[in-house]
Specification:
With 182 residues, the protein is mainly alpha-helical. Helices cover 76% and strands 0% of the residues.
């Protein structure tokens, strides 16, 4: 593994983590500027353990959001809540998902900074892993938000697709994660 300057290492992790937010606080996906990939077999277990809570947390968020979005869609279709109430609830789900992502990102970054300080020879690999899992999560979060936005506009057509969509997102997360960290 390549050792990097300690300040450069910390700055790289901060930069990756900060890409989650555009100026208006919404999720933003920017292009990769770091090490393109690392082989999962070369990733120490400590690094895998440090990023695992981010995967687990996102899976929980997707499960919760999918269940709630399905319930809300059924309620608006049944006339139990208004379209405006439905939109408010969906917007709250997206805000919660964004907040949870940022919290998971920050805790993962802290754990990885600590590992990089303890193992300077792992720093380049840590940056690569953090960027790869961050990109995966951001892409899935963007897909999730796009679907939820569409669900608000096309509820009758998409209400029946909610469970399948979120199951597919969770499967994509698990598959992508295993490709990155093994």
């Amino acid at each position: 593994m390549t050792r990097t300057d300690p300040q450069e290492f910390s700055t790289s992790l901060d930069t990756i983590a900060q890409r989650h937010s555009a100026g208006d606080g919404t999720v933003s996906v920017e292009s990769s500027t770091y090490i393109p990939e690392v082989r999962a077999a070369d990733i120490p277990q400590e690094v895998k353990d440090a990023v695992q809570p981010a995967e687990t947390g996102m899976l929980e968020q997707l499960r919760h959001t999918g269940d709630a979005a399905y319930t809300y869609a059924q309620r608006v279709l049944a006339g139990d809540i208004s379209g405006e109430q439905f939109e408010d609830l969906i917007n709250q789900l997206m805000e919660s998902a964004q907040t949870q992502f940022i919290q998971l990102q920050d805790s993962t970054k802290s754990a990885l900074k600590s590992l990089g300080s303890q193992h300077p020879d792992w720093q380049a690999m840590i940056v690569s892993v953090f960027e790869a899992v961050t990109n995966l999560q951001l892409n899935l979060l963007t897909e999730e938000f796009d679907f939820l936005q569409s669900l608000m506009s096309h509820t009758p057509q998409q209400a029946g697709q909610v469970n399948g969509f979120f199951s597919d997102l969770m499967r994509h997360l698990v598959d992508g994660w295993s490709q990155i960290v093994g």
